Amino acid sequence: MKILKFGGTSVGSAERIKGLLDIIRPQERQIVVLSAVAGTTNALVEISQAFAAGDKDRAASLIHTLHDRYRTLIVDLFTTEEGLQNGTELIDYHFNLIASFSSDLFTPIEEKIILAQGELISTTLFHFHLTELGIRSKLLPALDFMKIDEDNEPKIDFIRENLSELLLQSSDHNLFITQGYICRNSFGEIDNLRRGGSDYTASLIGAAIGADEIQIWTDIDGMHNNDPRIVNGTKPIANLSFNEAAELAYFGAKILHPQSVFPAQRYNVPVRLLNTMEPDAPGTLINKEGTAKGIVRSIAAKDGITAIRIHSSRMLLAYGFLRRVFEVFERYKTPIDMITTSEVAISLTIDDVKYLSDIERELTDFGSVEIDRDQTIVCVVGDFGVNTHGYAARVLDAVKHIPIRMISYGGSNYNISMLLQTEHKVEALRSLHNRLF
Ligand code: ADP
Ligand code: ASP
Ligand code: MG
Questions:
Q1: Phi and psi dihedrals of 353, rounded to 5?
Q2: Given the CA of residue 194, which atom of ligand 2 is nearest to it?
Q3: Which of 40, 43, 58, 382 could disulfide-pair with 296, CB 3.0 to 4.6 Å?
């Protein structure tokens, strides 16, 4: 069985939704994972922010605008009275629900319910569209099988058991449709897999049921060798190993959700990145093997990074020091991305600053603490095995005119990362591109 995930642009208009049938073959057994229609989740975030700020007028006006967009979309999508009627009832139901949160109690629970509406609408609209065309499909409610635990980690066994049961109940169907991004948390509440999470949904489903392949259909012809939004002349990469793709996704290549490679890698399910606008383009195949060794594959950047330096003479010749430092981050459930150490200091980076002031207070017990915000990790990915040489020199030479706060090399064979101020990111990406490719 294959898993096909279509992102926001791929379902961004009635035309695009209709066009999905150029790619999906309804007679083949497959699970189609859909994102919300492009722009919807951003609009839902804005609506939630207006509610949270108590600005009901702004919320109402944003809801009205988004509802109107869907009114136009369904007129273009459905061709029969009945189809249009079903579409109208569907969007009215969801927009009434969104508007019902105008009460004064607006917490993260209500926000997550609002954020879930985009995927609930897009999947049902597609199901109605297929029904109108006489094509059989089965909607699988992601909220019945996609689950995360108290640490926001997916519960793969739960997903496997519940999804397999749903598939078994509908064994006479071939084409299944489900929502990306949304899930339930350990309290059973509606939650999500963070922005861009539909890729993660597809990977989790593929891993859970041991799919033959996961296809991520998006608006570009695969993983490029640099961020195409910033650098001109980037090129798609035909084949990447799981390790390389995981580093790129984690360190900012927006085409893949940061966590989305891990489930596929763990269960060895190949992932293909494909372009809805150019379905015959080869795209990128991500699998165990990857291809050539010892070459630079791609460059990515992750913004919103905060660097923390702890300077302490107690670190000198001491053991157990690093453990105690790391325990502080563990207590606040804050992941660390990069680390460098010297004899008397340690620098590390985080992107989640929710507990930064608590962390800073506790770290002060060890020595002096310096914090630098607005940092970016620039990550050069390739297969730099222990026996290769010259890559670090080439990378650093390409950024020699830019101040570098941290360098990390050798953590894995696949990554050379640098931390720099975000204002220098564009120049760093362009200069690396010109000199490395
Ligand atoms: P979707 O809505 O289909 O999930 P996304 O916008 O999340 O699509 O991801 C696709 C976008 O990722 C591309 O349009 C491109 O601008 C951006 N992107 C950033 N870095 C890369 C990269 N290295 N290769 C390809 N695309 C990238
Ligand atoms: N709709 C969600 C978002 O915009 C999930 C996704 O598109 O992958 O973040
Ligand atoms: Mg995406």
A1: -100, 15
A2: 9
A3: 382
How far is the C-alpha of 298 from the C-alpha of 59, rounded, in Å? 41
Tell me how crowded residue 110 is: count the other CB atoms within 10 A of its CB.
18
CA distance 132 to 124: 12
What is the Å distance from ligand 1's center to 414 Cα?
Answer: 21
Residues with CB under 6 A from ligand 2: 7-8, 35-36, 41, 118, 180-181, 195-198
60 vs 47: CA distance, rounded Å: 8
Residue 213, ligand 1, Cβ within 6 A = no
Give the tens place of pLDDT for each residue, 133-144. Answer: 999 999 999 999
**Mutational pocket test of ligand 2: of 35, 42, 112, the residue with most ligand atoms within 8 Å of the beta carbon:** 35
Mean of the per-residue pLDDT values for the chain? 95
**Nearest-5° angle of CA 340, CA 345, CA 351?**
50
Spacing of C-alpha 160 from chain mean position = 21
- How large is the average pLDDT for residues 11-27? 97
Q: Which atom of ligand 2 is nearest to the CA of 196?
A: 8
- Best probe residue, ligand 1, of 254, 376, 378 (max atoms within 8 Å of C-beta): 254
Strands 284-287 and 271-275: antiparallel
Residue 160 amino acid letter: R
Nearest-atom number in ligand 2 for the CA of 193 is 5
- Sheet architecture: strand order including 406-409: 339-341, 345-350, 296-311, 368-382, 415-421, 406-409
**Number of H-type helices and E-type strands within the chain:** 13, 16
Judge contact between 181 and 198, C-beta under 8 A: yes
pLDDT band of residue 383 (cuts 50, 70, 90) is confident
Ligand 2 center to 58 CA (angstroms) = 23
